[in-house]
Design goal:
By secondary structure, the protein is an alpha+beta fold. The protein contains four helices and six strands. Helix 1 packs antiparallel against helix 2.
Length: 143
């Protein structure tokens, strides 16, 4: 393996696990504006970086969804991280901005039940396929 400073390691693994997460508001309500957006980003750093010991590489919102590019360890259970993220942000935002959110949310929901998550890599699937297919083949003799 190339010596690449982008890789992290722990006792059992060398890794580079990066994910793109998208979470949408319930019914795609356009509520992620100004102070709510700012607070969501603050809470996101607290949850993902401090509580889950992961690193946010990029984060931004549109009116009805948030995009987060983050890196984490192999021990992180993604479904638990995402569930915790949605639960805590929903609870805190609804508590802190109840008067602004009341017209949109009369039930205790903030996020849609669904989310999008994708792993990302600095190499394409095609490059990995070709590398795997080449394993075990001896290089041609340059005679």
């Amino acid at each position: 393996m190339k010596n690449n400073s982008n890789y992290k390691k722990n006792r059992h693994a060398i890794y580079k696990l990066q994910y793109h997460l998208v979470v949408c508001t319930k019914y795609r309500h356009p509520v992620l504006i100004k102070d709510i957006q700012h607070r969501l980003i603050e809470i996101s750093y607290d949850i993902i970086e401090k509580q889950w010991k992961s690193e946010i590489l990029e984060i931004n919102t549109d009116l009805d969804h948030v995009h987060i590019l983050f890196e984490t360890s192999p021990q992180t259970q993604l479904s638990k991280l995402i569930n915790n993220y949605k639960t805590v942000t929903s609870r805190l935002l609804r508590k802190e901005f109840s008067e602004k959110l009341e017209p949109y949310y009369w039930k205790p929901y903030f996020w849609s039940d669904t989310y999008f998550i994708s792993s990302i890599s600095d190499v394409s699937e095609d490059i990995i396929r070709k590398y795997i297919q080449s394993q075990g083949k001896k290089p041609a003799n340059p005679a």
